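#struct-pred

JT: dropping the chains for the assembly here, can someone run the whole complex?
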Amino acid sequence: MILILERRTTPSRALTFLSPVLAIGITVVIGGVIFSALGLDPLKALYLYFVEPLTSLWSIEEVIVKAAPLILIGIGLSVCYTANVWNIGAEGQLTIGALFGATIPVYLTGWQSPLVLILMLTLGMIGGAVFAAIPALLKTRYNANEILTSLMLVYVAQLLLDWLVRGPWRDPQGYNFPQSVAFEGWQLLPALGDGRVHIGALLGVVAALILFFMMGWSLRGFEIRVIGRAPRAGAFAGFAEKQVIWFCFILSGALAGLAGLCEVAGPVSQLQPTISPGYGFTAIIVAFLGRLNPIGVIFAGILLAISYLGGEALQVEFNISDKSAQVFQGILLFLILACDTLIHYQIKITSPVANQG
Amino acid sequence: MSAVEAVILTIITASTPLLLAAVGELVTERAGVLNLGVEGMIIMGAVCGFIAALLSGSGMLGVLAGLAAGVAMSMIFAFFTQSLMTSQVATGLALTLLGLGLSGLIGESFTGQPGVKLQALAIPAVSNIPFVGPILFGHDILVYLSLALTASVAYVLFRTRIGLIIVAVGGNPHSAHLLGFNVIGVRYACIAFGGACSGLAGAYLSLAYTSQWIENMSAGRGWIALALVVFATWLPKRVLIGAYLFGTVWIMGLYVQGLGVAIPSQLLSSLPYLVTIAALIIISGNKTITRVNTPTSIGQPFAPER
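RK: done, full complex below.
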């Protein structure tokens, strides 16, 4: 008896929705097995991981705070990946967006006005978009692989941030700590309610809705889908592939930059050598788990945010490194990809004899 | 030891992991498979090699463990992309993310511990010749292995039947399949070879380059190795040149800093990444030289018709 994959004549519609659920389910089972192998009570560990973050108001707020950047970046990446444009440098675009926005608190420290916040948000988006335009230019002009160039630029952006907070942008009153002045007043995002949740979460949801309608109901969205699935057909239809590449990079870069600005004007509230626990990379998983659909990305972002908190809870309870969250996220991405195979292929059981005949 | 001698030695040390990883990925890509998980395989090779060497006290066991870790990681990639037909780009990214997370988890309690240093092969008499001795004969086994592997790959790929099959599978898997070659099998083997080389590159980092484990110590070398393969237009001898060029850039930053030149250290640290981008622009912009050697089927899944 052997198992073979046979291509379906039409993709399974039910599995399009079920495959992420299936992937999450299998990840939870594998997680349980790993926890028992480590000698932990698997049910308790899984509870801590996936349920506990949702049991108190404080941790629900924390989930939303962490989901906001994941959603903002994830929706941009989902548009890119639909077009087969591989921007994997969102972490760098996030960093540059934060730097652009931070110019106002750093250079105009005392300036307080609602305009400050609007300018910072705009600058954040511009910064991310400009930085994302570099791989777009290199791809369209010199045919340089965008995966490699966008990724290389992540290191460059992080080193630039490191230099700024240790050098020219270091807070003169900061006792030589590598950090900028603390942002205050209109340099910070307004909170939603009285907790830590800020308007970044709202921006993420609004942007997701806009992109959802753009992808489904506009010519640009149609172009992106056609170029992604069949570039030759797109060319015959007169769609400009290069334009789509530019659009995808600038859009996803602007959203990543906005996410970066929301981090430094939100939970972090100043510039530090590290301003993100790898949101730009985790958002790749978010985009796939959300099936490259902006609405799906909202749910995926929340789930991945829970996994960050779950990792921390596990560290407190069992003294296991919070790196376990990253491992979980990696396994999850593998399983999403495997379950997606089921949309296009079905598993057939055949005997080797029948196969030869 | 003279200053020139020291510079040449450090260049060799910095170039060897790039060469190992790039020559492995070259073979994988020649078979038509793009494995973006090089960074993840290197870092797993580094952590497993380090731990095995520390626990056993033997550098050689560390090297073997690094190799095994690289192969194991690559087999996950192979199973998903070749048997489950998942996207190579996405699966490669997944492998890198998994490797970075898993290595951090496994290696956490080993961070900062003094490790085992891979010993240089002491060749009696010749190692003691001034200047020439240390530069040609004073290295550990992985330096020689990286050079031998590059030469063997150049020979096997273009001068033997096995090499022709690999290139055929990468060039046109459907024809290769119709000729009776096992496309999936060949690709599994080439992915495994790439994993082994990346694992060795990782072991080199944690056993020879620095004999300690630091989280994320691969520092983008996997991605630079991927860029090197493009830079080398899929030719082993150019991978050798490219790896030493990039190794030199990597080291240059350290030396310029040592000379007390007032350049921010971060700018010097970002040089390898900037140079990689520059190299990609120069090579990719030139369509004639890239087209000749690019494996035509690269990145595309292959499902044999039954």
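JT: nice. The mean pLDDT of chain A is 90. Chain A has one domain: 2-356.
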